[in-house]
Amino acid sequence: MIPLARPWLDSAEEQAVVETLRTGRLVQGPCTSAFEERLSALCGRRYAVAVSSGTTALMAALRVLGVGPGKTVVVPALTFPAPAAAAAWLGAQVRLCDVEQDTMNLSARTLSPCLDDSVALVIAIDQFGNPAPYDELEPLLAARGIPLVVDAACSLGSAWQGRPCGGFGLMSTMSFHPRKVVSTGEGGAILTDDDELAASVRRERNHGLESGAFVLPALNLRMGEVPAAIGLKQLAKLESIVAQRRALSQRYLGALSIEVQVELKSAVSNRQTLAAALPAHIDRRRFVQAMASHGVEVGPLSYCCTDLPSLAAHLAKDQAATPVARDLASRGVALPLYPQMTVDEVDTVVRLVQNLSYVESAP
Length: 363
Hints:
The chain has 12 helices and 16 strands. The protein is an alpha/beta fold.
């Protein structure tokens, strides 16, 4: 089976785990501190705060920025539901904006109609590792005084106009799930340049504890020492991981005839996901099943949050239309891509994709 994704783990991570276990220090130790320092340096940030997942990173970031009842947060409609769910969990209303067909990202064009005096915050997403157009977004939001938080869960190792992703917005968040470019099993981080925000998220991840006192009610969102030790070894491979993903992606893109995500000239994507969209006449369910029958795992690309029942009660009443997000969610597929993948495996996937184009929609 050619899997959809596979983290690049070897003896370096194994040794790091064993050495950490032997110390007996499994939380709030030197591995977490070293992981945070390395991550902040790679992203050009003053601070990185490691937490238990990408979702808890979003929750902590939004909470310290005052997101809650009576607030409206704008989120791209095409996304895994975590960003919208984090805002909804805190009691905010969620306003969804559409994305561009080619980049699959929000833009100033799609975002502008969603902005009014009720908007407290905007979450931009680097979709599938492809950087959002920050040269458009930052001045648009700065002129209105609206903070920008970036969900950079997929974009570690990507860059926009030469600046590393994770380095944009008032705060940015990352995930280290096994589908991501760098994995700690589960894990996440919040990055910022602001002293007080960094201190605030550190309180949020540790029961509200500061200087020996519980200064606010909060949860345990800490990353353990074993995941951090794995993460340090993963960060050491980041450049090689991204280079290999980009090389394999170029082979895909040179051979596929179906619609694929576009990387703008100012962007360098880590190609966290090989994002494609099937022609409208292809039945995606049958396509996925047919690929599996040939030993290739593919999956739906993402979700249109406009259509998720779990979020329905939390969406702003004046919801904007999101036709592009709905279209991409219905036709999108993620194709196998991981650094250990061989050229022959890429060619196998391409051949099957091209040959399975006859899998038409059921009447």
